[in-house]
Amino acid sequence: MALAVLAGDWARRRGGSLLALIVDHGLRPESANEARLTRGRLDALGIAARVLPIDGLSHGPGLASRARAARFAVLEAACLSPGILHLLLGHHAADQAETLMMRSLSGSGLAGYAGMAAVRETAWLRVIRPLLGVSPERLRATLRERRVAWVEDPTNSDRQWLRARLRPAALRAAYSLSAAARSAGQAREAAELRRAAELSKQVSIWPEGYALLRPGPVSSSTLAAVIATISGSPFYPPLEATIRLAGDLRPATLHGVQILPARRLGTGWMIVREEASMATPVRAEHGIIWDRRFRVGTGARLPAGCMVGGLGKDAAKLRRLSSLPSAVLRTLPCLRNGDLLFSVPHLGYSTVELCAPAPIAFAPPHPLACAPFPA
């Protein structure tokens, strides 16, 4: 509620607009009424608001991570439809402190000790957390001063959750932990700038979904970034295995990718998706992402019933169209219906007229490099 009130003030002073998004996880009987009550309070303040219900979320193992993923999915979808580019989240200083304590318990490294980023970019949005340095009590005081009521989520004090058990200590240590996060964030920013410089010199990435590493030493950080991008995984590869490979680069399979000599593509190394790890074909629809790496564009004319998947053994039939190695060709996305191959956009091959020359784009969840961590 405090985020909506403060962001509303900020937007009005600049002639902008704001849409408040209220997520209802549907995990408590009272949550729907609480969401409607919050929307009514925002309406009374002149702030447009929408309630976003999450369907199908149930109690059980991994609830926190499942709820987090589902929450971001509905928030992202709500932003995409009207073309909203900036998503503000209400995490505050105590949330940051809890995050640091949880990552410390899990043995996180430098990146984890930097905490949540104040600014993060995804394929569609810029995610902003403007309240990370503000205590929850200061936010409640602001609402009381403005005579704005709010709803306290009872799960925040339910001690079955690790965050709730850590919350009292996090509240006491919020200031010092926030300072530690800023310090770690500065170190992370410097490390990411160094990695970006190395990437620009050592690595080239190609729209067919593979990367080339120039000859010479490569840091484990750079290698991890390349592997994560080419694999389409939301996570980086195992640290120890990456360090071993970076110290002695050689043919290997790791985290769903193959590392192979570049050969006809150059004198260094090629990193390409492992065919055996690719996702199974899915129904081709505008905007759908296959194998977490390739997005079907909105300009594509999609034949009825076609699927998007890997080219696989059909690569041999199209060898004449490209000099790319077989390891790359077999992992290219294609459109087909059963045994009928409709299109391989990256090879310029099509048996039907398409509305765009390249309707399937390489769009992994991890960009090879982006803006450095904002310290």
Characterization of the model:
The protein is α+β, with helices and mostly antiparallel strands. The protein has 3 domains: 2-190, HUPs (Rossmann fold, 3-Layer(aba) Sandwich); 207-275, no CATH class; 279-362, no CATH class. It is 37% helix and 18% strand. The chain contains 10 helices and 18 strands. The chain has a 5-stranded antiparallel beta sheet with strand order 6-7-10-9-8. Strand 16 (340-344) and strand 17 (349-350) form a beta hairpin. Helix 4 (93-105) crosses helix 7 (162-202) and helix 8 crosses helix 9 (239-247). The mean pLDDT is 87.
CATH topology of the largest domain: Rossmann fold
Mind describing the biggest β-sheet? 5 strands, antiparallel
Low-confidence stretches: none
Helix percent reads 25-40%
Strand percent estimate: 15-25%
